[in-house]
Amino acid sequence: MPIRASVHIHGHDGVESLRRDDENMWVRLDALTSSAEETRQLGIEVGDFVVFDTRTEVTDVGFIRSRHLDDKAGVACIVGAVKALLDAGQQPTQRTTILISNYEEVGHGASTGIPADVKELLTVDMAAVGPGQNSDEFSVGVCIKDSGGPYHIEMRRKLVGLAEGCGIPFKLDVYPHYGSDGEAAWRAGADMTVGLVGPGVDASHSYERTHVDSLVATAKLIAEFMLS
Known about the structure:
The protein is α/β, with parallel strands linked by helices. It has helices spanning 7-16, 36-41, 69-87, 153-166, 181-187, 212-227, and strands spanning 57-58, 63-66, 120-124, 127-129, 140-146, 149-150, 170-175, 193-202, 208-211.
C-alpha cells in the first residue's frame, strides 16, 4: 500500500501527489512484530512473494472479473482446447508441444524450452481491450503487431482463415505497449513462424475483465490450429 494512504492524515494533496513506485510503497503486515528479527521469526524473508487477492467473480451474463486474467485466461483457453480434443477423440495433426512459462511478464519466458525443430509457434496471450483498440471481450484477438514489431503474415492469414472457416468471432489488432513470449523466442534466435492470439481483457494489469464468449472463441481457434 502507499506510505501515505489516508487523506484524513495526509490530506488530499499528500495522497494524490504521491508517485506509486517502490520508494513510496510498503507492505503492511497483519502481525505483532516490532523488529526485523521478530519478523523473520514469523517465517518472512527477503524475496518472499507479495500477491494480490484475485477477487474473482463470474457474473450471470458471463463476465469474468479478476486480477491476473493476463495470462491465466490464456492458460484456461489452452487447457480447454486440449480437453475438447481429448473428449472428442481427436489429436493434433502434427507433434504439438505446449509450453506454459512463468516468466512471460518479465520478458524471457519462451526464450528457452521450445524444441529446436518447431516450425510454428502459436503464442497465447491476452488481447488488450481499451480506447483506440479493435479488440473486445467477446471474440478472440489476433495480433498483427506489438511493441516488438509485426508477427508473421502467413501465420496471421492462416489464423484468420481458420476463424472465418469455422465461424469463430475474431478481431485483428495492434498493441503498441505490449510484448509476448513469441518475441522472447525470436530474440533468443528461434527460427520459426510466430503468431499471437488471445481472449480480450479489459483493464490489463489492474482489476481485469473478460467474457466467457472470448475464452470459448480463443479455445476454439487454438483447437482448430492444432487440427490444421
